[in-house]
Each structure stands twice: as structure tokens, then as C-alpha cells.
Specification:
single chain, two-stranded antiparallel sheet, 11 helices, 46% helix, globular
Length: 333
């Protein structure tokens, strides 16, 4: 199992520049500790998470790091022109000397994103799948012609081409169509911090029934904080967890109101935003608790990469927590 860092560019102190460079500090620390990957999320119209220009932030990280792989977690494809995404991804792979990992998602539950990017929520998944199909052709082929429902091009070749012969692709999905698409193409899967173990097991089981060779292609992101005692860890993480819980419950209420018959229920067998649920499904606690939780995820899911999202509001405490993980947890799991 590889260890990664999950990067949300959290704006804990209402200071954009501070948020950006505290995240850079965490990525550089992760590289120093020998973490293999850093995954950057994409958020829009959010005071809490300052990563709307994800690929710009990753280009910045590419120039400040040398060994850690950099992943998109994830490009919200329905909100972008896939031709531009292909050009940016190919350029970024060259900038980071072939260290790029390409995660994609449909976006949600954030209704304002769909509204302002003029993409109905009911179209998001179909647009994501069509976009990644086009992007894969543009990255590695020449004179590409494509005639999809949403996107078209005629004898198009993009430059530059990626440095890697094949950039690894990961799809954030729990939907049957998305899982089938990922399995068919040999793409990996991504699971977010609030996804329940039961949901993740169902997703992985469906994928591996279609593609048994994809056994090591799951990136699992989890909220994380390791401390000397369980109570200390929860105390440090709870302000972040509480803020996340309130934000996501508000967004989820909007989603349920707008599409009550299409949206899966937000419950503890699927995805839930209650504080106690988030603590239980995160890797938060003393060293032994963190080890046990990671082992459980490993046993149930056979994780390829565990992407840790440090969950204190204090950057120094997050740095200390990552060091504690490296010294007292990593070698025991």
C-alpha cells in the first residue's frame, strides 16, 4: 500500500495566501517523509477550499517537488472543455517529469457548481464518461475525430503529448455505469472520505468482477489525525469535522430537494455527514487506533493508495501528525 496526502487547500484562517502555502508545506513534508503521492481536489465557489484552479496549483507543486507523484482528485470533467483538459494534462505531465496521476469525477453534491457551469446534475455522469473517452484519444492519438452527444472534434491533434506513455487514470464513482466504464478501460477507482466501508466494498466487488487485474487500483481518501491519545486526536480534528459536516449537510439538503427520486439516500450504509459517523470512518485517534483502522480498510478493500487528509486547523500539528504516522503507524500496517 502506498501512502498519499489529500490536499484540499483548506482556508481555515480566511487568508488565501496562507492557505495555499500551508498546503505547500504539507506536500513538501509528505515528500520528505517518503509519501508516494499527493492528490489535489477541485472546488468552486467555496471559502473553505481554495482549489478552483487545481491544475495551476499542481503546476506550482510540480516546480517545488521532485519525487512525489501528483494526482488530480479530481478534475470535475462536466465543468470543463475536454480538449482544454487534454492540453493542460499533457503539459502538466511534462512539467512534473512524468509524475502525474489523473483522477476524474462528475462533481457534487454542490448544486451551485452545476448551476453556474450550466450542467444539469442529471447530465453530469454522462458528460464525465464521454469527456474522459475523448481526452484519452487526444492524449495519445493524432488526427482525432469524435462525434459524441456532448463533445465533437474533427481530425484534431493536440500538442504537447504527455511524457508518460500512459498516464494512470482514476474515476471517482460508485455508480454501476461508472464502475463498468472504469473496469473496462483498466482505470482505477477513487473513494472519498465520507464514503462508507459498505459502499466501498460494493464498488470494489463490482469492479473486480469485471476486471480482476485491477485489484490494486483503489485510492482511498480518509480524514486523518494521529496523536498520543484518542481524546487528543478527536479534540484536534473535531473543529474541522464539525465544519465539514455542516457544509455537506446543507449541500445535501439542496440536492435531495431538487432530485428526490434520483439521488441515493444519505445514510450510514452509503455516505453520511454526521459528526460521529465521520470520526468513526476516518483514521483519527491514537497510534493503535489508527493502525487498526487502516488494517481494517486494507483487509476489506486491498487499498492501492491511502490518501491522508490532515484534519487539524493548526498546520504545525498536522505536520507533527504526519511525522507520527510515518514513525509509529506506517511500518505496522
Amino acid at each position: 500500500m502506498k501512502t498519499g496526502l489529500f490536499c484540499n487547500y483548506d482556508n481555515h484562517h480566511q487568508d488565501a495566501r496562507r492557505a495555499i502555502f500551508e498546503q505547500v508545506t504539507l506536500v513538501k513534508q509528505a515528500e520528505t517523509l517518503g509519501f508516494e503521492e499527493a492528490w489535489v481536489s477541485e472546488h468552486h465557489f467555496s471559502e473553505s477550499n481554495l482549489s478552483p484552479a487545481m491544475l495551476l496549483l499542481m503546476a506550482h507543486l510540480a516546480g517545488l517537488t521532485s519525487t512525489i507523484q501528483l494526482g488530480t482528485a479530481a478534475v470535475l470533467l462536466p465543468f470543463h472543455n475536454p480538449i482544454r483538459v487534454a492540453e493542460d494534462i499533457a503539459t502538466l505531465d511534462n512539467l512534473c517529469n512524468g509524475r502525474l496521476l489523473f483522477g476524474v469525477a462528475k462533481g457534487g453534491p454542490f448544486p451551485d457548481q452545476n448551476k453556474h457551469f450550466a450542467t444539469p446534475m442529471g447530465e453530469s455522469r454522462a458528460k464525465m464518461l464521454e469527456a474522459i473517452a475523448l481526452i484519452q484519444k487526444l492524449l495519445y492519438e493524432t488526427d482525432v475525430s469524435f462525434n459524441g452527444q456532448y463533445y465533437q472534434c474533427d481530425r484534431l491533434t493536440i500538442y504537447p503529448k504527455p511524457l508518460q506513455k500512459s498516464i494512470p487514470v482514476y474515476v471517482a464513482t460508485g455508480d454501476g455505469e461508472g464502475i463498468e466504464f472504469a473496469a473496462k478501460h483498466g482505470f482505477g477507482l477513487m473513494g472519498g472520505p465520507p464514503f462508507s466501508l459498505e459502499r466501498l466494498k460494493n464498488t470494489v466487488t463490482k469492479y473486480r468482477a469485471l476486471n480482476p487485474s485491477g485489484v490494486d487500483k483503489l485510492v482511498l481518501a480518509r480524514f486523518f489525525f494521529a496523536a498520543r491519545t484518542y481524546d487528543e486526536a478527536v479534540s484536534q480534528a473535531m473543529p474541522f469535522i464539525r465544519k465539514f459536516s455542516l457544509k455537506m449537510k446543507a449541500n445535501s439538503a439542496q440536492v435531495m430537494q431538487k432530485s428526490p427520486h434520483k439521488q441515493q439516500p444519505f445514510d450510514r450504509t452509503n455516505i453520511c455527514f454526521d459528526e460521529d459517523y465521520l470520526i468513526e470512518n476516518s483514521i483519527i485517534g491514537d497510534v493503535v487506533t489508527c493502525r487498526d483502522k487502516i488494517k481494517k480498510f486494507q483487509d476489506e478493500l486491498n487499498i492501492g493508495t491511502l490518501a491522508l487528509k490532515p484534519s487539524s486547523l493548526d498546520v504545525q500539528k498536522n505536520l507533527d501528525s504526519l511525522t507520527r504516522y510515518n514513525q509509529e503507524v506506517r511500518n505496522y500496517v
